[in-house]
Amino acid sequence: MTIDNNLNAMISSELKLNEMASNIAQVSNTMGTPEIQEVNTDLIDSIVNQIPEVISYSANANSIKTQNAVSDILLNIKA
Predict the structure, then answer these.
(1) Which of 2, 6, 32, 78 has the fewest CB atoms within 10 Å of its CB?
(2) Segment 13-64, tens digit of pLDDT
(3) Any alpha helices (H) in the chain, and if so which ranges?
């Protein structure tokens, strides 16, 4: 796996998270006052689907850190 793959996956996760956040904000804006806001399936799906996206984003970031550490070690060994 290369850093490019991880960065592309992170960008994809970011776009999905932005779309879900937009869905959540749209429900909030269209419903008006909090007392009459209803929980619908779009809102629930947007909230629940954020969980794996956040985990994926974090995993890709950790993978990049690991790849960087391995590269540093290999460069130190070579030097």
Answers:
(1) 78
(2) 889 989 888 888 877 666 556 665 666 777 788 888 888 888 988 998 898 8
(3) 3-31, 41-78
Burial 8-46 (b: 16+ CB within 10 A, else e): ebbeebeebbeebeebeeebeeeeeeeeeeeeeeebeeb
Q: Which amino acid is at 7?
A: L
The answer to whether 77 and 69 have CB atoms below 8 angstroms apart is no
pTM, to two decimals: 0.67
CB 10 within 8 A of CB 60: yes
Tell me the chain's radius of gyration from C-alpha atoms: 19
